[in-house]
Amino acid sequence: MGRLVLPINxxxxxxPLPYSRxxxxxKTLQEFPMIEIKTPKGTAGNLYLVRPDTKFDxxxxxxxxxxxxxxxxxxxxxxxxxxxxxxxxxxxxxxxxIPGNENGDGTITFRFRSRxxxxxxxxxxxxxxxxxxxxSRIGVGSTIRINGxxxxxxxxxxxxxxxxxxxxxxxxxxxxxxxxxxxxxxxFVSQDKGVLNR
Length: 198
Description:
alpha+beta, CATH 2.40.50.140, 15% helix, elongated
């Protein structure tokens, strides 16, 4: 998978907007509000909806990956490119990191993240309680939509990052607790009420 970088020939030719670099004359990054991002329906990848991922960050991060086909992903990529140009200017934006990983089958995967737990809705737009989200075991392959925001950052050469606000689960694929298939010839069945997948 490869990171998306804004190519030179994709930069629209227009008069420069106020950039963030020259203090006292041009706008700062903080003066550019985050832009709303609403994805179409896509395929869920890794999901941290109830408990944050603390593997690389002790504070924890809620996050969701969504994979879209190239045509659908183009709307998100385009919005992020426009934001990079508006904030950094065409020259710097051409080298700015844009969200999205290109997959070998032509699809693009985006990662949305947040410090706060996102709201999760079912296909009928009913808000799901955290304990019900956990019980549903929403897994990889589920069909989802994401509401989020995109914001620029200056570090590491500059870029655009995607923040997670809300997730709607359209079609559920449950993640399995057990790593084994049921054996029809087996005789042992636990009577322990603590069995997780019963």
